[in-house]
Automatic annotation (TrEMBL), chain A:
It comes from Streptomyces galbus. Its main location: membrane. It is a peripheral membrane protein. GO terms for molecular function: ATP binding; ATP hydrolysis activity. It is found in: Cell membrane. InterPro entries: AAA+_ATPase, ABC_carbohydrate_import_ATPase, ABC_transporter-like_ATP-bd, ABC_transporter-like_CS, L-arabinose_ABC_transporter, P-loop_NTPase. This is Sugar ABC transporter ATP-binding protein. SMART domains: AAA. It holds the Pfam family ABC_tran. Residues 6-243, 268-512 form the ABC transporter domain.
From TrEMBL, chain B:
It holds the Pfam family BPD_transp_2. Its main location: membrane. It is a multi-pass membrane protein. This is Xylose transport system permease protein XylH. InterPro entries: ABC_transp_permease. It comes from Streptomyces galbus. It comes from the Bacteria. The chain crosses the membrane at residues 41-58, 70-89, 96-114, 120-137, 144-163, 197-214, 235-254, 260-277, 307-330, 350-376. One of its GO terms (molecular function) is transmembrane transporter activity. It is found in: Cell membrane. One of its GO terms (cellular component) is plasma membrane. Keywords: Cell inner membrane, Cell membrane, Membrane, Sugar transport, Transmembrane, Transmembrane helix, Transport. Part of the binding-protein-dependent transport system for D-xylose. Probably responsible for the translocation of the substrate across the membrane.
Amino acid sequence: MAGPVLEMRSIVKTFPGVKALSDVTLEVRQGEVHAICGENGAGKSTLMKVLSGVHPHGTYEGEILFEGEVCRFRDIRASEQHGIVIIHQELALVPYLSLAENIFLGNEHARSGLIDWNRTLRHASELLRRVGLADHPETRVADIGVGKQQLVEIAKALSKKVKLLILDEPTAALNDEDSGKLLDLILELKKQGITSIIISHKLNEIRRVADSVTILRDGRTIETLDVKAPETTEDRIISGMVGRDLDHRFPERTPHRAEEGAAPALEIRNWTVLHPIDQQRKVVDDVSVHVRRGEIVGIAGLMGAGRTELAMNVFGRAYGRYAGGTVLKDGREIRTRTVSEAVRHGIAYVTEDRKHYGLNLIDTINRNISLTALGKVARRGIVDEHEERQVAEGYRTSMNIKAPTVFEPVGKLSGGNQQKVVLSKWIFAGPDVLILDEPTRGIDVGAKFEIYTVIDQLAAQGKAVVFISSELPELLGMCDRIYTMAAGRLTGEVPRAEATQEVLMRQMTKDKEVTR
Amino acid sequence: MSTDVTDKSPAAAPPGKGGGAAGTGLLQLVLDGLRRNMRQYGMLLALGLIVAVFAVWTDGDLLLPRNVSNLVLQNSYVLVLAIGMMLVIIAGHIDLSVGSVTAFVGAFAAVLTVEHHVPWPVAVVLCLAAGALAGAAQGFFIAYLGIPSFIVTLAGMLIFRGFTEILLQGQTLGPFPDGLQKIGNGFLPEAGPNTNYHNITLLLGLALIVFVVVQEFRDRGRQQEFSLEVVPRNIFLLKLVAIVAAILVVTMLLASYKGAPIVLLVLGALVVGYGYVMRNSVFGRHIYAIGGNLPAAKLSGVKDKKVTFFVFLNMGALAALAGLAIAARLNAASPKAGLNYELEAIASAFIGGASMSGGVGTVLGAIIGGLVLGVLNNGMNLLSVGTDWQQVIKGFALLAAVGFDVWNKRKSGS
């Protein structure tokens, strides 16, 4: 067996307020395909950013050895000179340039500033052939599908004389056929001596291409397993990914007793959503869920499972193209084709991306809180500033928003406090149903507990709560019932009593078969 | 990136509660207020400085009653446009067509009143409607068809300039009926005994003072009613005195010449009205919201398209008002009227604190920005600086104002 080509030793990386990596060790052998898996937020992408120089030397602790040499990369360029190339989840291609231009972007075949087109095109077709693409190198990137674009990224990597190829969830946006092609290519490159690291949480993929798998959890290396060994089962990997015990991080809550007979507060039937650009792709496929008053219902799933897409499409078609399905509120069918319609029917959606979709960062706390329900503090179109301020002061106290006054711009608050502002804003709107999308993402433990408490109180007041989260412990700690989604489909529904991390993770990593 | 420690005053005493610390507490409060409105006070200070400098350079001519009156008349239309432009920029857009729309409306007014002898009040209404329609048409393309405002209004700039020339057939058309002329360069009528001052203007000033004082006290009362913190009594009184003094000075200046120009009254009403709308109305809030973060505003149920549409409709109506004022003042409609006014309005808004990315700015800021440009114009005219150098200096003023803004933002690390 070949020796290690890459060693990362005791890597520690902290962001302001968050320890993203605390002691990660990774060893990759020459010529293998090495998978890295772990829950969302386990530190996979951060680790790869450290390796590729996105986080330069000096911003992390620990040591990187590549081909036996200690590496101190200043930037991506430095790591690429050593033959380490990373392909990010979001493709980095310029849509209106040709394949050839994209492949050599920043690395052009040029003589004294002028591009040598003959050499560029010849070399480009050669690289495209190597990745199995027959398209002409002058085709625009925008004119080929996502699957092919992923292959172009690999061709681009090959042009840089890649020795270690890092793929961050390469198949997340691909259909089965394209995924298959991509995985075959990785195996083909392996034969040519190229080492690959593939970040994935699709266990069937890992089994198909990987030689070994390293499991990360909470910024630590848990273990490295030999995929080909008989004792490495999917269950083994799953228990490595989730194996963490639940401590007292959640408020005590009495499980909801569903009142039989009463219609659910919100019921979504057979909902289907198409991708906004690639309209062949169903990002949500025939999903039916419901939530009762006083109930907290979780939706678990990994990246790309379609949870946010479902919620945002139901909430005024804020994402994607609607392709069928009905919404019922208290047993009566309602229309939610615009956000204001949805709000009027008492539905609130608290976004996972508060900075882009939740808050006006340059505006003050009070104005952010009042925005969705300005009518409540206004008479005949004129806002009563004093009443508005009083309302905001009320939330500042009750939600414990840490700010000197409510006139502070929300952009200056910490993540946890910003999240409290978003929640206040939607609670002020007075909804019956709250859809909370990753309400605790990127905030510290203390603030998390406060937010859990608020959610619990909302349910106790008789509101129906849909809780979308990638953190299984918080779903287990908070929810009465948990749905699981994978690749746009509903893959399971688990009552609180039967839910464990292993059960959920198995259904979340299920690919393509529907069980119900 | 700056890694400055944000808390720069570890030694400063905490806001005082006891009697002995009242002085520092007061100062702290004033400083806090200043810091929060740095941009606005900064511009007000700059305006004061420019006024002072030109007053000295022109041996006081700048502040002669006749000149102040002139300054208002000369700049009123840019100020009217600046108000509308501020709304457009806050919403995250731009309007390049306003200069052409003012010219177009002026021409329309001339054709109506001079050629077709339409009574002037009817013509005014028709002209305002025409401007609103021009704005609405552009707003439709921008809001509902999603064409960038820069493109739509660039097209509008060409189209309405063209219509102006078609209407006037390349000629200058005038003179206007008396009633219409009054809008541009008329003054309030005089009444009562001869006091060497303009009585009605004095009365009006007095009424304004009473109104402001009553409003401020009522507002304070309401705040206490909601059991909110209020500014300490002495600061509140200090603020009142300052406001009253400012109104008095301007009133006396105007009253010692021919009285308040009608344009000034219209402008004053617009400033108060629009200031109130932007600060206190749901519509105003929605403008800030779509400019500050469009996706978040949409997800909060703000009807962004409708808001954008009305912002442009409003800009058209204000451009029409400005067009009437210019035409009336020059007593003729000319094909070249309003040339580059869009740029003056845009410059005013940016000097007054608007941000290129939208979501920021106040009506008062636009007025201050417009006055900075206006005083520069007027002062340099008094000093007989050529228009060549005037442009250079105004260019630098714009650059300096926005440069200060960027520097200030970077320093505060947001």
